[in-house]
Amino acid sequence: MSDVSFVRTEMLQEQTPPASEVGIIGWVRHNLFSGWFNSILTLISLYAIYYVLSGIVPWIFQSVWNANSLTECREIMMATWGSTHGHACWAVINDRWLQMLFGFYPDHLYWRPILALVLLLIALAPILYSERVPSKLLYLTAAYPFLMPFLMWGGTIWGPISAALGFVIGWGVYTVLSKQLSGLLGLVLGVLATVIWWLVLSGYVVGAMDSILPIGIEAVQSRQFGGFMLAILLGVVAIGVSLPIGIVLALGRQSDLLIVKYLCVGFIEFIRGVPLITLLFVASLLLNLFLPPGTNFDIILRVMIMMTLFSAAYMAEVIRGGLAALPRGQYEGADSLGLNYWQAQRLIIMPQALKISIPGIVSTFIGIFKDTTLVSIIGLFDVIGLSSAIRADTAWNGIYWELFAFIGALFFVVCFSMSRYSMYLERKLQTGHR
Amino acid sequence: MSELAIEREIDRTKMQVSDEVAIEITGMNKWYGAFHVLRDINLTVNQGERIVIAGPSGSGKSTLIRCLNALEEHQQGRIEVDGTVLSNDLKNIDKIRSEVGMVFQHFNLFPHLTILENCTLAPIWVRKTPRREAEERAMHFLEKVKIPEQADKYPGQLSGGQQQRVAIARSLCMMPRIMLFDEPTSALDPEMIKEVLDTMIELAEEGMTMLCVTHEMGFARQVANRVIFMDAGQIVEQNEPEEFFNNPQSERTKLFLSQILGH
């Protein structure tokens, strides 16, 4: 049976693919017209896209930019196109855009939130693009949490300095005590010292320093805050603080220490089981009942805390998913080299778990950023609250689409940027197939 | 399991067993829940010994060597590694782990770090070695396992055999006195087993104390000075390789050998 024997004497050369498989023609054939059914779907889709755009594009571009009221807008539309239908009245945005961005923030102080935003972007750069930006900028990042409230609320400079001092005191107590006593006890007492400083002592020190050396800038009250600025303020704080808290909660939930574990589980499940709006009502109404009378606990600070806790609970679950996806071998590999728990977490486990969780983390970020609009329900004038306020003005009574389109565009820019950044990050951290 | 032929002549000049005790296990017992996995293990390993632990799957051989660096906790008995008694004290555990290298079946390299970073991580963070020195040492060991040119790649870009050699180099960078191998070739394609075994043989030739859980009987025959056969959580037989393979005493050992060497 020598028929089955076959020996290749010469290897085949690579050949160029046929023209119908490459280039534009190949792409169109593969992706749009790869069969009669797909061709029909393509045509229907093209028509649907045309139909939607033919409505929206004229509405956006055949529009009125300069008018003082909706009535005047309509008069101009009638004069120009003979109909008020299908034309946007962007005059309302032209008239009120500063208010939609800054709320009732004093207009001669607009430079402060703008400077805060610019500094935010600079402070974020060393974190977001660590390899392209000098790492010295991290000092600005560290100072930013104290700089930002000073710029936004103004007042005496001793406030933020005293808040920063709380961290220094806590760190001092921890380093001294953790060497003399145990690490855990030192940590607990260090946190305790910081909290006591902030809640009890800090007020007197700030008062005293301010009377000795009154340095400061014009103060702005929280009720003057509003607009898209408020969304960014709440969003940045909730996002920035909830990530570290979420990591700690996720680790706590996996901990072998029973009490730590159940405290974390209880917190996460409670917060996730309650709608955000309930927590916001607690912040705005109920909290005052429990606090000693006369305490001035800023409403924006209360909302920030609630939003942070809410987002931290979700973050913890997202990160727990990332931790669960790591093979056990990674823990064993780290253990077998003699790394201790925190080294293993910081160098081996967390970098991988966070990388796996990037899509979920960014979804949570985007979610909490959009949820900041809920504060309009408890009476803060965020951008949604302001749109109602603008409609309450007789000049703009009855205008909806333009305001919401503008708000939508603002949120889209920020959320889409976050989404693109997360994709960039995933690509950057890609280290070959596993 | 085949008996892979080891072609080259093994240099035995440095392969000497000293009187110094490296590992001493006395009366060790371990349970997984109610299941008694390791039963009354007594074993003394001297410095420079090369021990192969064989046995059917589920016999507790992996669990035994994982107990030696506390990846698994034992419930009874005493384990002393390189003069340190293994207790619940985390300091002792970390000390032993940094002195004992371990190579896993599935390599357990860190996929988010380059090969070089994999090798320098523990020296820098655990031993506090300066970065430059750690990198020089890492390159030295990568050259030894014959893949210095891969230093800047990520583990995911390497073949299984290369990854396992990196894992060996990573362990060596901690300058361990004892190396544990937990089925280092079981997850590899046949073509790659040889390159990993060659690396292990070189290590043995330099006088490293080694405990290997492996099914590579060729390696056991040529390199080991003692073969331990385990079944049902206990040591059934141990002997010099020549005697072990040619003249097994227990029925269980005979059955095992006939099954893995039979064809």
From TrEMBL, chain A:
Q: Which UniProt keywords apply?
A: Cell membrane, Membrane, Transmembrane, Transmembrane helix, Transport
Q: Can you tell me where the transmembrane regions are?
A: 36-61, 110-130, 161-177, 184-205, 225-251, 263-287, 299-319, 398-418
Taxonomic superkingdom: Bacteria
Q: Does the keyword Nucleotide-binding apply?
A: no
Q: How does it sit in the membrane?
A: Multi-pass membrane protein
Pfam annotation, one family = BPD_transp_1
Q: Which PROSITE patterns match?
A: ABC_TM1
Q: Among its keywords, does the record have Transport? A: yes
Q: Where in the cell is it found?
A: Cell inner membrane; Cell membrane
Main site of residence?
Answer: membrane
Domain ABC transmembrane type-1: from-to ranges: 228-422
Q: Which InterPro entries match?
A: AA_ABC_transptr_permease_3TM, ArtM/GltK/GlnP/TcyL/YhdX-like, MetI-like, MetI-like_sf
Task: Tell me which family the UniProt entry assigns to this protein.
Answer: Belongs to the binding-protein-dependent transport system permease family. HisMQ subfamily.
Q: Which NCBIfam families match?
A: HEQRo_perm_3TM
From the Swiss-Prot or TrEMBL record, give the protein name. Answer: Amino acid ABC transporter permease
Its taxonomic path starts at: Bacteria, Pseudomonadati, Pseudomonadota, Alphaproteobacteria, Rhodobacterales
